[in-house]
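Lecture 7 notes: from sequence to structure.

We start with a single chain of 394 residues. Read the sequence below before looking at the structure.
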Amino acid sequence: MNLLKITLLILFASILLGCGNSGEHSDATHKTDDKSTGVFTAEMSVSPTSVVSGQPVKLIFRIKDPKGETYSDLELDHEKNMHLYIVSDDLSQFNHEHPVKNADGTFEHTFTFPNGGQYKIYIDFKPKNAEKRFESYDLNVSGEVRAKVEVKPDDKFEKTVEDLRVTMKPDGDLIAGKELMLTFQVFDSKTNKPVTDLEDYLGAKAHFVVISKDLKDFVHVHPMSNDNAKGKEDSHGEHNEKPTDEKLAGKDSESIVAAMLTFPKEGVYKIFAQFKQNDKITVVPFVFEVKQGEADKPVDLSNVTFPEGSYKIIVSKNGFTPQEISYKADKPLKLAFYRADEENCGDEIVFKDLNIKKKLPVGEVVLVDIPTDKKGEFNFSCDNDKLKGKIIIQ
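Now the structure, written as tokens:
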């Protein structure tokens, strides 16, 4: 009997110790910042589920961490935790909103669609200590559908919307893959004088969203300071036209806002510039065509040997080729990077989400093993973040 009691006591103690270890391991896993090695995602739901124009609907976003758990610890990005953009499929309707956090960790915004038809929903957010994320969703809205507006390039980069007249001047040709500065000057549409009382909107003098005609490319751009804009413009001295040098240095500089961006590919784009004056936000759109740059000679790979079964990616002044890779989960993936020239800022290849960083010597093949046990998107870039690519594990 005593032996039985002792055995039961030992067994009971073992169970307690096992539970204690399990709890300790669980806590450690929960506290471990493994978010840098996984992918955050966001799901959208609507309430009511049938969306009808003219009737309010709740757009609800649930962010999930790499473990699939609801996550709401977002950093402020231009004064907001989440930015929401609602656009019609012809880009004629544009709304920039900011969902608020619910008690259950979801983010919600109530919106009334003015017309029926197809809409694109974009959100961007930044989880704490992780990369900024962009997600997009398609939404069909029932109700009367208005006539579509053709998305065609403007004849000139000057637009008047209500009280504002805005001019846009690129610092060079609109070419894909080339870093450009777009300079906007704001005038009073009645007096034609420069507007010097622009108010901060989301912590800056303006806000810019760029969307391609096919709705596939989305860029959220913040303005530069006047000092940075002038310095950048001086650095583009090879261009004959430098429209804002004198004004940036003078009293009219308060009416000028500049933004740097790189268009990912050729095509037609629409930029929505938002300005705030007298506590009123005005959206000024421009449509323009971005052309493909001069084609470079194909990279000569005749003397390059890639390991059998590897997935080759060429790094050149054109960027990564291919730029996006879709791959099946649980299937071994070995990337073979070949840096073809020195004109590409690609000294290193960086997978921030996977905590991988490797040197990329010119003319050498560099192998990177990619884990495929988790589905999601894994971004990669060169060390200064100018060249970017994406792996989608499905």
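Helices lie at 2-31, 226-234, 245-249. Keep this in mind for problem set 3.
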